Target: Penicillin-insensitive murein endopeptidase
Amino acid sequence: MALRFFRFSHLLGAAAIAALLPLAAAAQDPVPAKQVFGAVTLPSSGAPAPIGSYAKGCLAGGLQMPADGASWQAMRLSRNRRWGTPELLGFLERFSGDAAKLGWGRGILIGDMSQPRGGPMLNGHASHQIGLDADIWFRPMPAKPLSAEARETYPFASMLDKSKFLTVDPQRWTPTHAKLLLKAAAEPEVERIFVNPAIKKKLCDTWTGDRSNLGKIRPMYGHDEHFHIRLKCPPGDKACKPQAAVASGDGCDKSLAWWFTPEPWAKPKPKPDQKPAKPRFTTLADLPKACAAVLAAPAAGGARVDAGGGARPQLRPAKTGLVPQGDVPDAEGGEDQ
Ligand SMILES: [Zn+2]
Model:
């Protein structure tokens, strides 16, 4: 039974716009935007809309990915980061079915998506801010459903042999891993996929099928325990700022070879006589103006997801204070480069 994710108009409500005005003063305060967005536990009411860019933006009218589906399980539920646009939820549902058909267990384990109203996060990611990014584990969904408790502690599995420099562990990597990544890359709405440079190299060295979408799979720090799928701005979403298109070709070139040089791993050397730069954090004023309205908007009564089979979205009760964070360090800087 198919989930249906409804999209209404692309406009923010007039009430939300009016609420922007008193926030103008607050936007002057140098409060890190990640603290504000990281404290919100429910989505804004109104139409779903990605606003701004993947690493500097927010999400209006976010929808929550159901914790369970026929071919997916969402993980680390306490992080409250399984929110997205209807396009992302619909994509994950379809892709999870394709993954199961490829032989990827019962389907996929879904990691972080976005916060209820998107925006910067207190830890873990540079992007994931507008409801179009999702992390997928490099472990398939097991046959027996994991309890909510087990989903908090279920261990990640790195694809790397950590005793060597940037090397995929041949004991862990299988042809199905490669098929899964290339299947995702072949989807027209997928903009980029981030994987560890060692994984990209493995694909470059071993993939014998169609390579026309291999260029969408990009090498990045981390991403050895999960891969990161980024969707394009949905057509008609004018507030969504697209990223520059990936260069043509399969990406198995100098840009990949660079990752295997010392340069990306060297600590930046401070220049002599240079004063240490003040740490600069993103404030609300750095984000698109509409993000203040998203923060000020009333909470949605519920995500507009018609699951048809009883898999209702599990909305948390409204409350103040920080959402408990997962304990898994996960570096994803620089994804918007
Ligand atoms: Zn990610």
Notes: The chain has one domain: 16-264+282-306. Helices lie at 14-26, 33-38, 86-102, 148-153, 175-186, 197-206, 254-257, 290-296.
